[in-house]
C-alpha cells in the first residue's frame, strides 16, 4: 500500500543551529518535507535543483541575506510563497521585506502554532482558494493533507502522480504548458514527454477530466 504522506516541501534558511533544528523537527512532525540551508548562497543553489511549496527565510544570514535572496528569486520569476522569520522589528525592514516579494513576515521569537497557521494560509492561497480542499466533479483534493479523494474514497497516488495532480489542481481550469510540467517534475533533471504522458494517462484512468491542448499542454477542468 502506498503511504499516505504530505508532500509539501519547505526550504528553510536559518543559521541559528538550535532554531533550525527545532523548526525542522516540528515541521517534519507536521508532515512537511524540509530542506535546510544555512546561508543565502546555499539556499539559492538549492532552488536551482528543486521546487518548493514555501520559503521560510531568515534575513541576517551570511553571503546573501534573505532580502537579497528573495529579490533575486522574484527577478527570475520564482513565485513560491515566502515568509520572513527575523528578529528585525523596525518598520523599514518590514516594508523592505514586502517590497522584495515576501508574502508574510513573522518576528522572532514566535509561537510555532502561529507560524503554522500563516504557512497553511499561504499554501491554500497558492491554490487560489481559502478553503482546505478543492472540489471537481466527484473529486476532492485536500490541500493540507495533499491527498486525492473520489466520492469520499481515498485515491492512493505514487509520488510523481501526486506531483502532477497537485500542479493540475493549483491551475484548475487553466492550461499548463508541457515545458512547465516537465521542468516541475524533473526538478533540474531531464524528463521526457513520453514519461509525462504516462502520468497523465494514469490520472485519466481514475477519472480526472484532463484535456490535451494540442501543441501546448494539459488542462484540468470540469467534464
Brief account:
The chain is an alpha/beta fold and 223 residues long. It is built from eight helices and twelve strands.
3D structure, described in words:
There is one protein chain. This protein is of the alpha/beta class and 223 residues long. It has 2 domains: 9-125, Response regulator (Rossmann fold, 3-Layer(aba) Sandwich), CATH 3.40.50; 133-220, Winged helix-like DNA-binding domain superfamily/Winged helix DNA-binding domain (Arc Repressor Mutant, subunit A, Orthogonal Bundle), CATH 1.10.10.10. Helices cover 40% and strands 22% of the residues. It is built from 8 helices and 12 strands. It has helices at 17-29, 40-49, 66-75, 91-99, 112-125, 159-170, 178-186, 193-205; strands spanning 9-13, 33-37, 54-57, 82-86, 104-107, 133-136, 139-142, 147-150, 153-155, 175-177, 210-213, 217-220. The strands form 3 sheets. The chain has a 5-stranded parallel beta sheet, sandwiched between helices. Helix 6 (159-170) crosses helix 8 (193-205). The longest helix has 14 residues, at 112-125.
Amino acid at each position: 500500500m502506498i503511504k499516505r504522506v504530505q508532500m509539501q516541501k519547505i526550504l528553510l534558511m536559518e543559521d541559528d543551529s538550535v532554531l533550525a533544528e527545532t523548526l525542522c523537527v516540528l515541521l517534519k512532525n507536521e508532515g512537511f518535507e524540509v530542506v535546510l540551508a544555512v546561508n543565502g548562497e546555499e539556499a539559492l543553489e538549492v532552488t536551482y535543483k528543486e521546487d518548493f511549496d514555501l520559503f521560510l527565510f531568515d534575513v541576517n544570514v551570511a553571503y546573501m541575506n534573505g532580502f537579497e535572496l528573495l529579490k533575486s528569486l522574484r527577478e527570475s520569476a520564482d513565485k513560491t510563497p515566502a515568509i520572513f522569520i527575523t528578529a528585525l522589528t523596525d518598520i523599514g525592514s518590514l516594508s523592505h521585506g514586502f517590497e522584495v516579494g515576501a508574502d508574510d513576515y513573522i518576528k522572532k521569537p514566535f509561537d510555532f502554532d502561529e507560524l503554522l497557521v500563516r504557512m497553511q494560509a499561504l499554501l491554500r492561497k497558492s491554490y487560489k482558494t481559502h478553503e482546505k480542499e478543492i472540489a471537481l466533479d466527484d473529486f476532492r483534493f485536500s490541500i493540507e493533507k495533499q491527498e486525492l479523494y473520489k466520492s469520499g474514497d481515498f485515491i492512493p497516488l505514487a509520488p510523481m502522480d501526486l506531483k502532477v495532480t497537485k500542479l493540475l489542481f493549483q491551475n484548475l481550469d487553466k492550461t499548463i504548458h508541457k515545458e512547465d510540467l516537465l521542468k516541475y517534475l524533473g526538478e533540474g533533471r531531464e524528463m521526457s514527454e513520453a514519461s509525462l504522458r504516462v502520468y497523465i494517462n494514469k490520472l485519466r484512468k481514475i477519472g480526472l477530466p484532463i484535456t490535451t491542448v494540442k501543441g501546448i499542454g494539459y488542462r484540468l477542468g470540469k467534464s
